[in-house]
């Protein structure tokens, strides 16, 4: 559904009127386009601590324009505020900040950049997880990065985003994947997020097709976000298997044929659903995306048992049962990637959605609880929590609520199914095993929740 306010705000007359009235002025976000080869099309600025040199050595695979500020990475050209090029991407390594007085480096580095960013610029701060540090002053300084990064992300304009990545010991070699995602238009609707990376043995061998040779199953794939996920996984080289309910068979088979994949019609809540699914996957599975979900909204005072049970059965119980069966049977192979579609409703709650929010919070809890037990097999499990996404479902929300949902984020607009799909595709990569047991919000830094 078209966002008419963005269309108006970006017209010549609308831009002047919105500015004069002091109204929100969201811009059209830059998103990944087919045929694009480089993650960054513009200048990349690198600064800060010891990881800056490591990043500079791989930066030539990201862009041709590499600059430094405040440090002297050997592969970079010095950037001079007001005289250097506008910046499309920025990485600042704050991992060596250990005391309060060192935090001023954040202001000294970022303040001169704020008026020198291109449209839809992407910024990253690197740190060390506070809980891993023995020195309480160092842990305090690193925890301070969260407050700084979330606040600065809310000050950015023109579609710019910012994330904080805590880099664990041994995870330094896994930085290229996150840089390719978070510094590119693939993360257009992700901002203000805190990511933790750990060591991971697997790597991407071909960045043009990072999922080549991997077999992926997507539930709820006939339309909407599920269809976009299937398309994006196939674009990145995966062999896709699409699953949905029998009434969606026609749409499902058409999409599977277009993507060169295979369709499975199945009621995932059936008593024998796990047995049927395992029989349909004799060659095993590398990527499992639980996207299928339903809503049955009512305030708790008016919630029927049927509405409650249906939502919990589809959204939470089915992913639990099917994933366990696929793990126990060995169908889900070692080094597999499991992605659960949660929601910011499961983080912040939402009036009239006690059933839905409970199911989505349960998925986040499932990822957190299962992640440590799957490490021995090299399997990662994560949740993706979308905010307001422009779909057929949100198109039927009353106008006032729909507009509020769109504007209540730092980016001032709703996301697209592609935004969720890009996050899922990144988490499905071999190297993304460095990211597990976490919830990645795709919400434009919504004001709801943490």
Automatic annotation (TrEMBL):
> What EC number is given for this enzyme?
1.1.1.100
**All residue ranges annotated as the Ketoreductase domain in the record:** 214-387
Native species: Pseudomonas hamedanensis
Family matches, as PROSITE patterns:
ADH_SHORT
Which Pfam families does the UniProt entry name for this protein?
adh_short_C2
Record keywords, A-Z: Oxidoreductase
Family stated for the protein in its record: Belongs to the short-chain dehydrogenases/reductases (SDR) family.
Which top EC class applies here? Answer: oxidoreductase
Q: Does the keyword Oxidoreductase apply?
A: yes
Q: Provide the protein name.
A: 3-oxoacyl-ACP reductase
Q: Which GO molecular function entries does the Swiss-Prot or TrEMBL record give?
A: 3-oxoacyl-[acyl-carrier-protein] reductase (NADPH) activity
Q: What is the lineage of its organism?
A: Bacteria, Pseudomonadati, Pseudomonadota, Gammaproteobacteria, Pseudomonadales
